[in-house]
Structures are given as C-alpha cells and as structure tokens.
C-alpha cells in the first residue's frame, strides 16, 4: 500500500507542470496574437518555467509566493514542483495576480493541481487569485508594509508583461508614491515585487535585457542593486530561444536576486535554449558585472573568457569621449514635425538631410532616392536651429534591424558630400562632434575604425541586449587616445572589416 501511494505521489509531482503547460498552449491559442502583443502577454513554456524555478536557492519551510502576471500559473507550478521534489517545505501560500479573464479558469485549475500535489506530500497549501491590477494593489500593500504591517512574502517568481507606461499616467503616479521611477511594466512589476519581499527573500524573473543599460532604467538598476545580492544571470544565445511560440524580438535574461544580502560573486549562465543540458557557466566578480567606474551602473553579462579579455581590453583604454573633447548628440530633425520643409531631391535652397538609409558600407552615400524618405531639407529660420556646420562627423544608427550583423553601425560623413554650409541629421541617428563643431578628419577616421571593429561590437553586446544605441552607451565605452586614433585613421583608406579589426586588436 505504501509503495503504491509513493508511486502516485511520484507520478503526480513529475507531471504537474506538463499538465499546466497543456493548459498554457490551449489558452494561448484562444488569445488573439495582436492583443497579446499590445498587452505584452508572453506566457512561460514549461522548460523555461523549470529553468526559472531552478534558480531559487532555498525552498524549505514556509513559502509565501508572489506571481504577478501569472497567466495560467506555469511559474508558480514550476516552483511548487521543484519545492516538493527537491526541498522540504511545510507550507505554501501562492499569491497570483492576473487581469486577463480568459486565463482565470486555467490559473484556478493549475492551483488545484498544486494543492493536490502539496496535500499528497503532506504540505499545507493556500492560495489567492487576484483578478485586479497588480500595480495599485502592490502599492497599497507596500504602504501597509511601510506602516509596520507584516506581509511575509519571501519568494517572487515573474514573467511580467512588456509594455511602456506613459510618464503622465496614473500608474506612474502610483509608482512614484512608493519611490519607484520606471517606464515599463516589466521593470515596475519586478520593482514592486522586490519591495514587497521580506529581507532575505528571493526574486527570480525573466525579462528583456533592456534594463541592463541606458538612462531610462538607471533608477531601476539602483533599486535592484543597492543593498541586494544579484546572484545569478542567465542569457540565451538566440533572441527566440525562451519564447519560441511568440514573436519576441528582444533578448531575454533570467536574474536571481536575494533581498538585503551582501553582494557576492555572480553566477553567469549562457545556454542555447531552455532545454540545454550543457550550458556555459562562469563565476564573475561583481566589479566585472557592474563596473565601479560606471556611475550609471550598467550590467555587463560576460559569458566566457574571451569576453572577459575583451572587457579588460576596452576597460584598459586611456580615454573617455569627454577626455577627447568629443560629445554625442541625437539628430535634431524629426521629419514628421517639419514635413513642409522636406524635399525628395536637393535644390538650391536646401541642405542634405542624412537618414540611416544613407549608410552604405561604413560611408555615407548621398543622395538616395526613396519612396518614403527625403534627401534634403529647406534651410530657413525655422530649420536652421536643427542644423550643424558642414564638416566631418561620425554618424551612428540609433536603431539596427535584428538582421544586421553589428549593433554599432558607424558611418563617416565628410564635408565633400555636399557644397553647403550646414547639414541636417535625422533623429534616428546619433552623431559625434567636437562640442558642436565638426571633428578633426584623422580623429574622425580613427573613431570610424574603432567603432566599426568587432572588438567594440562584442563589448557593446555585453551590456546591450536590444537593437537601440543610446548616447549614454557611447559615453560608457572607453576609447584610444588622440595619437592612437590619428594613427588608425591615417592607415584606413577605405572600409575594410579585417583591417579595422586588426588595428583595434593592436591597441
């Protein structure tokens, strides 16, 4: 009799998440794809859920779980499955938040399975399914906690929605009332969950990598890193590895944080997919992940020894852009705001308007006839303030397509492109300049070589997990000194990737 009961328990525990995953697939098929994209809904496949649950360090004793944006409960189920199989919990209280009405019956079914599994294991079970807005509820709970009420949350497991929050929205006002300043649902769900946790509580989440860099997430990074232990980072080699069934274009990262614990070394894992049986694992010093010299607290995910050497090489270069007297600005011409001044073909009253479409193998090809994009802008009192003096500049695409091989695409703009006094750069470009003036030609060529090298591209990917290049990212990179840049520039006669990589390697 005892052995048959044990077998029932064994079978139940081994199949619980697989049953819930079938629910996920069924519910996913009933949700309109465009609606899911608008709401940022990407439910977690079983293999990914197990991977996320596998990051928790301690699932013994009493577990009081936060699962915000729970879907059909895949993540909580994975956590329960692991706790019952590999630890000795005595009670589990699952707290889920889900606004999508069509998922609620699936979520309730999942929790009933969890309850059965817990009961078979002799573990006390309770649960709360909250069909209400997580942000407003969490803010209310945080205020209660700040006033001394015990909440006792000690585990948070999250695959939050990915959507921007308007700066003037009620959600942003609520977030600010508890000291959270962030503009995306995923970062706000993580921030609120972290604030809800007790000291020593663990949070594991899968989110886009976009929070690792850039000014928009600086406050969020400080909230994550200040006074907490960033214990694990797990990345995938492919953008689509984690969510194969969904149109997810951003790179994802799984991270594990222990609230209130002193920072130690960081375990960095890289895998080809969620089922990868032989992921690459390395232990990194925290200073290698978050440089003490970077006040913006960018998070570098360095997955192997080659990447370590690249980080050391770039970090050891002598100059910042400020040291070189160089600044980065975003092109001032927003074409839809000045349509009446745009021209398809250059004329005597116009100056060039350079778009990303003009980039051609490291150079600027001008003009290029295009159905939707203009080549020129009328120079008048209104547009003059958007222009810069004609001369030598380094232009960098602000956005690259996922098909492009490189994240940083730098083009060399030269004075000879047009016989004009002023030139306009479109808003989807960044440009390097000498405090508002054109760059020295040889310095510019050296920067052109350096920024187009694979050395810089590989370094950039360590902290940038999306296709946007911000001015702040370019300020973060270290650069060769003026003499080194001039030397590289004088040796570069044309765009040649092999030569550029050779020059950068020799620095």
TrEMBL record:
SUPFAM superfamilies: S-adenosyl-L-methionine-dependent methyltransferases
GO BP: any one term: methylation
EC number: 2.1.1.72
Keywords: Methyltransferase, S-adenosyl-L-methionine, Transferase
Catalytically driven reaction(s): a 2'-deoxyadenosine in DNA + S-adenosyl-L-methionine = an N(6)-methyl-2'-deoxyadenosine in DNA + S-adenosyl-L-homocysteine + H(+)
Domain Type II methyltransferase M.TaqI-like residue range list: 127-239
Entry-linked Pfam families: Eco57I
Coiled-coil region(s): none
Residues in the signal sequence: none
Gene Ontology molecular function: site-specific DNA-methyltransferase (adenine-specific) activity
Family matches, as InterPro entries: MethylTrfase_TaqI-like_dom, N4_N6_ade-DNA_methylase, SAM-dependent_MTases_sf
Domain of life: Bacteria
Name of protein: site-specific DNA-methyltransferase (adenine-specific)
């Amino acid at each position: 009799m005892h052995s048959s009961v044990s077998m029932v328990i064994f079978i139940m525990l081994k199949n619980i998440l697989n049953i819930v995953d079938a629910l996920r697939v069924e519910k996913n098929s009933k949700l309109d794809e465009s609606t899911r994209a608008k709401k940022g809904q990407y439910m977690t496949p079983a293999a990914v859920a197990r991977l996320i649950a596998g990051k928790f360090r301690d699932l013994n004793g009493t577990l009081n779980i936060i699962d915000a944006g729970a879907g059909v409960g895949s993540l909580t189920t994975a956590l329960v499955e692991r706790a019952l199989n590999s630890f000795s919990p005595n009670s589990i209280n699952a707290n889920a938040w889900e606004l999508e009405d069509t998922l609620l019956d699936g979520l309730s079914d999942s929790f009933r399975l969890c309850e059965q599994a817990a009961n078979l294991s002799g573990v006390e079970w309770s649960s709360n399914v909250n069909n209400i807005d997580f942000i407003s509820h969490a803010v209310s709970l945080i205020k209660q906690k700040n006033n001394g009420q015990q909440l006792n949350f000690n585990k948070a497991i999250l695959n939050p929605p990915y959507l921007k929050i308007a700066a003037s929205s009620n959600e942003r006002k609520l977030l600010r009332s508890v000291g959270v300043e962030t503009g995306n649902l995923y970062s706000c769900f993580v921030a609120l969950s972290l604030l809800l946790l007790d000291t020593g509580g663990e949070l594991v989440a899968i989110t886009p990598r976009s929070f690792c860099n850039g000014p928009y997430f600086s406050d969020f990074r400080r909230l994550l890193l200040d006074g907490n232990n960033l214990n694990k980072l797990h990345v995938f080699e492919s953008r689509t590895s984690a969510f194969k069934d969904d149109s997810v274009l951003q790179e994802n990262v799984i991270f594990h944080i222990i609230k209130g614990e002193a920072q130690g070394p960081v375990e960095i894992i890289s895998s080809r997919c969620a089922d990868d049986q032989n992921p690459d694992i390395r232990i990194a010093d925290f200073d290698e992940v978050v440089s003490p010299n970077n006040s913006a607290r960018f998070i570098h995910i360095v997955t192997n020894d080659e990447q370590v050497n690249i980080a050391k090489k770039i970090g050891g270069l002598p100059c910042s852009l400020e040291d070189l007297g160089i600044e980065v600005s975003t092109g001032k011409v927003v074409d839809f705001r000045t349509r009446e001044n745009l021209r398809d073909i250059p004329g005597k009253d116009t100056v060039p308007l350079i778009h990303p479409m003009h980039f051609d193998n490291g150079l600027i090809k001008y003009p290029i006839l295009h159905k939707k994009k203009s080549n020129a802008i009328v120079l008048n009192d209104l547009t003059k303030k958007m222009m810069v003096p004609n001369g030598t500049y380094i232009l960098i695409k602000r956005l690259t397509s996922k098909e492009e091989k490189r994240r940083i695409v730098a083009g060399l703009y030269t004075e000879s492109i047009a016989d004009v006094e002023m030139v306009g750069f479109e808003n989807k470009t960044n440009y390097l300049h000498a405090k508002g003036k054109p760059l020295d030609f040889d310095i510019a060529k050296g920067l052109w070589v350096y920024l187009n090298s694979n050395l810089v591209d590989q370094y950039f990917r360590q902290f940038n997990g999306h296709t946007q290049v911000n001015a702040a990212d370019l300020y973060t990179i270290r650069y060769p000194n003026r003499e080194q840049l001039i030397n590289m520039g004088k040796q570069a006669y044309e765009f040649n990737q092999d030569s550029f990589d050779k020059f950068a390697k020799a620095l």
